[in-house]
UniProtKB/TrEMBL annotation:
<keyword id="KW-0812">Transmembrane</keyword>
<feature type="domain" description="FAS1">
    <location>
        <begin position="31"/>
        <end position="166"/>
    </location>
</feature>
<dbReference type="InterPro" id="IPR036378">
    <property type="entry name" value="FAS1_dom_sf"/>
</dbReference>
<keyword id="KW-0732">Signal</keyword>
<feature type="signal peptide">
    <location>
        <begin position="1"/>
        <end position="27"/>
    </location>
</feature>
<feature type="transmembrane region" description="Helical">
    <location>
        <begin position="175"/>
        <end position="205"/>
    </location>
</feature>
<comment type="similarity">
    <text>Belongs to the fasciclin-like AGP family.</text>
</comment>
<protein>
    <recommendedName>
        <fullName>FAS1 domain-containing protein</fullName>
    </recommendedName>
</protein>
<dbReference type="InterPro" id="IPR052806">
    <property type="entry name" value="Fasciclin-like_AGP"/>
</dbReference>
<keyword id="KW-0472">Membrane</keyword>
<keyword id="KW-1133">Transmembrane helix</keyword>
<dbReference type="Pfam" id="PF02469">
    <property type="entry name" value="Fasciclin"/>
</dbReference>
<dbReference type="InterPro" id="IPR000782">
    <property type="entry name" value="FAS1_domain"/>
</dbReference>
Length: 248
């Protein structure tokens, strides 16, 4: 009996050990900490979404070896997107697209030598984010600006705040086409200004020229006789000098 009891006891103990060790290595504490920090920072919607999705997502990476970077849209972004209808939660695939299984910090994204414009960051969705930062354009991914850096960063999980949801259908071509469009508009406006100047000259000069010449005439007439005499004096000196020169 005592033997049977101890076997049962050992079995139960064994089950307890199995159950505890089968909880993910990152534990519940980590997810609680991340979601709590986000909630307190005012990213309440994403905090709730991560509370239900992070256990699944973090189980897919080995946090002992890999750091996970999460890009977290603001509460405002939840009302300004086309992916789901609140109060429904964002679909898992959309959250997967906001989780990158590597450490991405401010210095990395701001350094064009580490991540030149157009370089890609793999996500848990298996579809990459595109870096659209350059020296002259604010730090962004898929042209979505990073609002807050390191809202949470314990070395294993890093969370940055972003102003909008990242669009999984984003293509870098859009970025280049916007650049191209800006350039095109710039050239077009130059051509427009140039054409306008030419047309205006054509129309305006005939009006302006007589006016200008009349003004110059009246100035000439109103010039004091002193100046006239001074000019005449120097002019005659000049003529005399030329005469002597030609004689010599
Ligand atoms: C969560 O935060 C508490 C308090 O700051 C800390 O003691 C604990 O180690 C954290 N847990 C994890 C898993 O990071
Ligand atoms: C990660 O490290 C912790 C402590 O160092 C260890 O208990 C855990 O088993 C490790 N997890 C994995 C998946 O290797």
């Amino acid at each position: 009996m005592a033997f049977k009891f101890s076997v049962q006891f050992v079995l139960i103990l064994f089950c307890i050990v199995i159950l505890t060790s089968s909880t993910p290595a990152h534990g519940v504490g980590l997810i609680d900490n991340v979601t709590q920090v986000l909630f307190n920072a005012g990213y309440k919607s994403m905090s709730l979404a991560l509370a239900s999705s992070l256990p699944t997502l973090l189980a897919r990476v080995d946090l002992n070896k890999t750091t996970v970077t999460i890009f977290c849209p603001t509460d405002f972004a939840f009302g300004d997107q086309d992916y789901f209808v609140p109060p429904a939660q964002p679909p898992l695939w959309l959250i997967e697209y906001h989780v990158v299984p590597r450490k991405v910090e401010k210095v990395d994204l701001e350094s064009s030598s580490i991540f030149p414009i157009g370089s890609k960051l793999d996500t848990l969705l298996g579809h990459s984010l595109v870096i659209t930062t350059s020296r002259y354009i604010a730090t962004s991914l898929n042209q979505v600006q990073i609002k807050e850096w390191d809202m949470y960063n314990d070395g294993r999980v890093v969370v940055h705040g972003i102003e909008k949801f990242l669009n999984p259908y984003y293509k870098i071509q859009e970025f280049y086409s916007i650049l191209f469009l800006c350039l095109f508009l710039f050239v077009l406006s130059l051509v427009f200004v140039f054409t306008l100047a030419v047309v205006l000259c054509d129309k305006v000069l005939p009006i302006v020229t007589p006016f200008m010449s009349r003004m110059i005439c009246s100035l000439r007439e109103s010039a004091s006789s002193d100046i006239k005499e001074w000019l005449l004096y120097h002019y005659s000196n000049y003529r005399a000098a030329r005469k002597t020169a030609s004689l010599v």
